[in-house]
Amino acid sequence: MIYALVTICICIICFFHGLKREKTIVNPISFFCGLWIMILFFSILNLHTLFLPEYSTYEIIFWGILSFILSYYTFRYIKLGKKITLSTRKNNNRLSLNFKLMYFLTIVCCFFALLDLINLSRQTPDWSMRTIQQLLRSEYFQSNSSQWLNMLSFLVIQPIALAIPALAASDYWIGKKDRKLMILSLIMMVLRVLSTGNRGIIIIFFIYFLVAGLLVNSSKVNTIIKILKKKKQRNKRLIIYVALVGIALFVFMTVFSRQSTLFRNVYLNFAMPPSMLEVWINEVEYQNLIGFGMASLNGFINPIFYILRNIFGLQTPVHFQNIYDLTMLTDVRWVRIGDEIIANAYVTGFWFLYLDGRIFGVIIGMFLYGAILAKSFTKTIKTLSVKQVSLYCMHFHGLFFSFIRIPFTQVRFVIALLFISLISFQTEKK
Questions:
Q1: CA-based max dimension of the chain
Q2: First-to-final CA distance of the chain
Q3: What values do phi and psi take at 139, rounded to 5?
Q4: pLDDT band at 250 (very low <50, low <70, confident <90, very high)
C-alpha cells in the first residue's frame, strides 16, 4: 500500500501545481492526477467487499503515473531544441471547417443509426439501455448488414460519429456557431444512443463541450479575450448549466441502467480499476503473451489486417490475433474482484502497456502518452483554432477514459483523430 500512498502524494502536488501553472482545470496533468487520486484513494478503502490489490499492482501504477508526469513536464516546459522552419514564405491561407462535408457525413451517420434502430425494433420490445446492450452482445442478435456495410461502419461511420461532436462543440465556442451542424450532431447522438444503448455517447459530447468552453474562457490570447469580453459571464453560466445537466444525465442513466444504489456504483466504477488490473495481469502472465506494441496500438494496426482479411482474404497473423482476442476478452469476461463483486473492462491503460512490454512497456508507453498530451495542449492554447481544440477534445476524451483503456487501442479513436487532422478542414485564402 506504500506505493499507493506515495503515488497519491505525488499526484496531489502535481494536481495543484498544474492548476496554478495552467490556469484551467482541463489541463492534462491536473486532470490525470486528480483522476488517479480518486481511484487510488477509493481502492485502498476496499469497501463493499472489494479485494485489496497486491503491492506489485500499486507499484506498476506508480511507475506508470510517474512516467507520465515526468514526460508531461519535460515536453511542456523544457525546450529540447530550436524549432526548425522549413520555409520563410508567408502563409496567406487559413483552415476552415468544411461544413458541407460535415452535413453530408452527419446525415450518413444518422441513416446508419436509423437502420440499426429499425433492426433492433424488430427483435425486442424493451427499449431500456441494458436490454439493448445485452441483445447486441448476445448470440441471438441478428444483424441485417452485409460485409461491406459492416466494414463501412467499422472504418468510417463509427470514427466520424465520434469526431463530429468534437468539431461541433469547438465550432460553437470559437467558430461560426453553425446551428445546422449542432442540430444534426444532436440528432445523430440521440439515434446512436437508442440504437446502441450506450449512454457514454452523451457523456462524451458533454466532455467535448465543457473542454472547449473552458479552454476558450481561460485562454490568454488577447484577441479572443477582447471578442468574448462582453459574453464572458454568459459563457460561464452556460458551462455551469451544461455541466449540471451532464451530471444529472449521468446519475439518471447510471441508476436506471444498473438498478442499484448510486453511491455504490460511483465508488466501484472508480475503485475497481487497480483490482481489475491485477486480475488481468495474472492472465497475461498465465498466457505468457507479449504484444510488442500491438495491444496499445491496436487502433493503428487492426484496420490494416481488417482490410487485408475482408478484401484480399489474407489471414491475420496468429500472434496479433492472440493479442487482440485477449484484449477483447477483458470486455466480455466477468471476473471476481470482491466477495460480492464481479466486473468486466476497467483494466486501465496500464494493462495494455503491460501486455505489450511488462513494466518497461508501462514506463515507455506512459512517457510517450504524456508527451503526446503535453504537445497537444501546448499547441491548442497557443493557436486556439477549431482544429486544434477539436483534436485536444479528442485527446482529453481519451485521457478521461484512460482508467478503462489506453485510447489508441480503439480503431474509431485513431481514425477519428486522422479524420479531424486530414479531412475535416479546407484551406481558404485570407
A1: 67
A2: 58
A3: -75, -10
A4: low
List the one residue out of 131, 209, 208, 198 whose CA is nearest residue 158: 198
CA-based nearest residue to 113, from 198, 171, 183, 181:
198
Give tens-digit pLDDT for 293-329.
999 999 999 999 999 999 998 999 999 999 999 999 9
Q: What is the arithmetic mean of pLDDT over 335-357?
A: 95
At 90-102, the pLDDT tens digits run 444 678 899 999 9
Sequence-ordered list of residues with C-beta below 8 angstroms from that of 219, at least 6 positions apart, any chain: 225, 381, 384
Beta carbons of 368 and 71 less than 8 angstroms apart: yes
SS3 label, residue 22: helix
What is the pLDDT, as a whole number, of residue 128? 58
Mean pLDDT of all residues belonging to the chain: 85
Amino acid at 389: V
Question: Residue 411's beta-bridge partner residues?
Answer: none
Do 310 and 147 contact (CB within 8 A), yes or no?
yes
Residue 50 DSSP one-character state: B
C-alpha cell at 129: 439501455
What's the rounded Cα separation, in Å, for the pair 115 and 416?
22
128 to 93, 113, 201, 259, 419: CA distances (angstroms): 49, 17, 15, 12, 32
- What is the per-residue DSSP string for 237-300? HHHHHHHHHHHHHHHHHHHHHHTS-HHHHHHHHHHSHHHHHHHHHHHHHHHT---TTTTTTHHH
pLDDT of residue 197: 75
For residue 284, pLDDT over 70 is answered with yes
Rg (CA), the chain: 22
Distance CA 6, CA 222 (A): 40
Q: What is the pLDDT of residue 77?
A: 87
Nearest one of 328, 325, 320 to 405, comparing CA atoms: 328
pLDDT at 408 > cutoff 90: yes
List all residues 6 or more positions away from 31 whose beta carbon is below 8 Å from its beta carbon: 25, 396, 399, 400
The Cα–Cα gap between 306 and 152 comes to 12
| Spatial distance between the Cα atoms of 124 and 126, rounded to a whole number of angstroms | 5
Q: How confident is the model at residue 430 (pLDDT cuts 50, 70, 90)?
A: low
Q: Are 239 and 217 in contact (CB under 8 A)?
A: yes
